[in-house]
Amino acid sequence: MANTSTNQGKGFENVKNIKINVLDVAKELQRKAEAIQKKAGALSATIKLRDAEFAVKQEVVSEEVAPQPAATEEVAQPQPRAEETSLPEKQQPAKEQEKVAEKAQPQKQQPVAKPQVDVADTQKQQPKAEAQPQPKKEESVAKVVTTIENGREVKTYTDEKGNVRVRKFLDTSSLRRPSTPRTDGNATGKTQRPQRPAGEFGKRPQQQNAFGKNTEADSRPSSSRQQPKRTFAPAMDIPRAEPQKSYGNKNKTKEHPDEKRISGKKALLTRDYSADYDEDRIVRKARTKKTEASRPVAVQKITNAVVNSQEVPIKTLSEKIGVPVATIISQLFKEGIMKTINDTVDFDYAAYIASLNDVTLELKMDKTAEEIIADSEQDDGLENDTKRPPIVTVMGHVDHGKTSLLDAIRHTNVTGGEAGGITQHIGAYTVTVKGEQITFIDTPGHAAFTAMRARGAKITDVAIIVVAADDGVMPQTIEAINHAKAADVSIIVAINKMDKPHVEPDRVKQQLTEYGLLAEEWGGDTIMVPVSAKTGMGLDTLLESVLLVTEIKELKANPKKRATGTVLEAKLDKGRGPVATILVSNGTLKIGDSLIAGSATGKIRAMFDDKGRKVKSAGPSIPVEVLGFSEVPQAGDYMYVADEKLVKKAAEERKNKLKLESARQMPAMNLGDLFGRISEGQLKTLNLIIKTDVQGSLEALKSSLEKISNDEVKVRAIHGGVGGINETDVMLAKASDAIIIGFNVRADNNAKTVAETEGVDIRLYNVIYDAVDDVTAAMKGMLAPKFKETVLGSVEVREVFKITGVGTVAGGYVTSGKAVRNGKVRVYRNNISIYDGNILALKRFKDDVKEVAAGYECGISVENYNDIKVGDVFEIYQMEEVAQ
Hints:
Elements: H1 2-54, E1 61-64, H2 70-76, H3 82-85, H4 94-104, H5 119-131, E2 143-149, E3 152-158, E4 164-167, E5 246-247, E6 250-251, H6 265-269, E7 304-307, E8 311-313, H7 314-321, H8 325-334, E9 344-346, H9 347-356, E10 360-363, H10 369-378, E11 386-387, E12 391-396, H11 402-410, E13 427-433, E14 436-442, H12 450-458, E15 462-468, H13 475-486, E16 490-496, H14 505-513, E17 527-530, H15 539-553, E18 556-557, E19 564-573, E20 577-586, E21 589-590, E22 594-597, E23 600-608, E24 614-615, E25 617-618, E26 623-629, E27 638-641, H16 644-665, H17 671-680, E28 684-692, H18 695-706, E29 713-722, H19 727-736, E30 738-743, H20 749-758, E31 762-765, H21 768-782, E32 786-803, E33 807-820, E34 824-829, E35 832-844, E36 847-848, E37 851-853, E38 857-862, E39 873-882
Parallel strand pairs: 7-10, 12-14, 12-15, 15-16, 16-17, 28-29, 28-30, 30-31
Antiparallel strand pairs: 1-2, 2-3, 3-4, 5-6, 8-9, 11-18, 13-14, 19-20, 19-27, 20-26, 21-25, 22-23, 22-27, 23-24, 23-26, 32-33, 32-39, 33-37, 33-38, 34-35, 34-39, 35-36, 35-38
Helix pairs in contact: 1-5, 10-16, 12-13, 19-20
């Protein structure tokens, strides 16, 4: 049934479309016909006016008028009764059908009197006339009289009763298509779909009024009002809406029953739409994707790989040789090396791992930024053709008068500013002698500053070894000689303190010969000058000797080159930031230059000479104090000026290199010592946090303290820095159980408060000797105590007693020395030691005694030992701690 209804609906839809097309064509034809008819009417009116003038306005034309077409009669006549309409076609007489067909034909003989009938209405009404033929009616023939009044035609006729009526015709141009009749009174304001007729071209559907009752044809007479005719195809059949239940002004009807719910306008428009009958619809069809079979990817075997660093990260090695990281770590583990993905391995190990996986690994070092800078300096084409001042380093033992000698040369007092009269930092000074400049570098003489003195010797041209005439050659003097020889610099010996009585310079010369320094007057090539810093004796001779030696060397440089030099000292100034003392070796250092020293970079903001004056540039062999570093550089770092981008790249390379070196210094864990380190637990470590005022002092103090380490206690500086002690240092010391040592610095208020609260020990010093002594004393407290065994006496067992609750008691005789109650006892039987323990009790008769002297008898019980026999010998002894 549902399929039949659907097919009918589709058929009606097609008929509807065809009728719409026909109507469009008919309207176009009607428009053209009206245009022609207007022209003919205008011509006819002109002719009639002329005829009317001749007939003196009284010409009557009589004619027989045929019945109007069915369409006109239906509009003019009332609607027939419902029972007449619903009669089947087969019950109507054939004659009546023939007469209806005759009525439907228009009269062609009377064009003037023909009414203007809408072609569209005629087309629409013809199917209705076929579907519902009208009953037979007696048509009366009336006489129509046409008159002309006021220039227009007026037609009159006489009806059956004899009344004269004016005949009016409809103006087809003013006719409009009748609106669709409302089928349900409840659907006020809503769009309703007309119901499907019961059969094809059958009866009209019965409608419901506002109260839901059927409006049957026989229930009440038909209205005299003309009902509008349906001029389009019948609508589809839809379910009837439920009658509305009204209670006052409240609507209790469900608006959208669950089984009839419609969502959205799109669903309403497409509810009865079928794409099968829509010829203009473009249907998009989903394309079926072709499933391609997965093709096996050919894995390319790696046979050769190249790395550009000596230390190869595990992850990089994995990517280069195409081996998973887990496999590499496993292979290293089999070799006894424990590594993780973030660790690095030496190139040799990396090449071995690559060979295990049939890959040849090559090392090709890329050109670093430093190498690029070095090549640019070599390719600049500038030669060293300008004479430069000599650089002289004053070296020697502590308190032999090095700084005092420089004071005499500079005519200034520098030693007064040093703590305890000892030079703590490297000082660089420029002195003019006979019109020529000489740069002096003063290095500390204490053994703790060995590294600083070594740096000073490397950058110098001449080394002056100061030896006190009264003391002679000392350990630091020998060390200074060795550094000067290693640096391959000329050595001049200054025998100081010649103003003291009973001094013997020849004895000093004799001692120096043991270390390869032979005086010129003795046939050697070493210049030895007796001087006195207090009286100034021999200073001129010393300076002339310096100029003589440097003149032979022909020291030259080029001020036009980019500056290079060495960092002599660096510190963190509270107001100025990182400050470095730089000795320019070649070129000219200017304000605004980008420079690098170690891993520290910067741009020069200001420079000061040795006298504190602000300068704009510094030439070769000139020491200056430089401001503008991003961080405090390390003392002894090589400094050079380059392009800003290259400087930053070189600094990054140096930082990475330092990381690799620090990782390499840490001992790698292997299977051989893994369990030994876990079970060791005997190594004691003294953790230190060192803060100093300058970088050079930090290195010196750190190296001095690390030298104190021994096999039992290890001194480790877990943190070191330049500047005052702050709260962060205290918290680090608390977490690491460390001692804070400050050299020429102090702790701020917050650090002091936190240190007192947390119990952190802060030690402040201004002389390095005191710091070393205190740390040495602290280490002694951590050393395992050493004991010496002292034999106190000997007891011979002569009787054995067994006492209930006490055990075995030996009755003995003290043969030598004495027996003490808190001593230790060693049991000998046949001169063989069988037990070593403590004395539990010592009695004489029934009294407890502290000791029993030789020649007396006593009773002795041994702790945890009862196997005592007659003839055993007890050796009484004590363990005494030995001072370290």
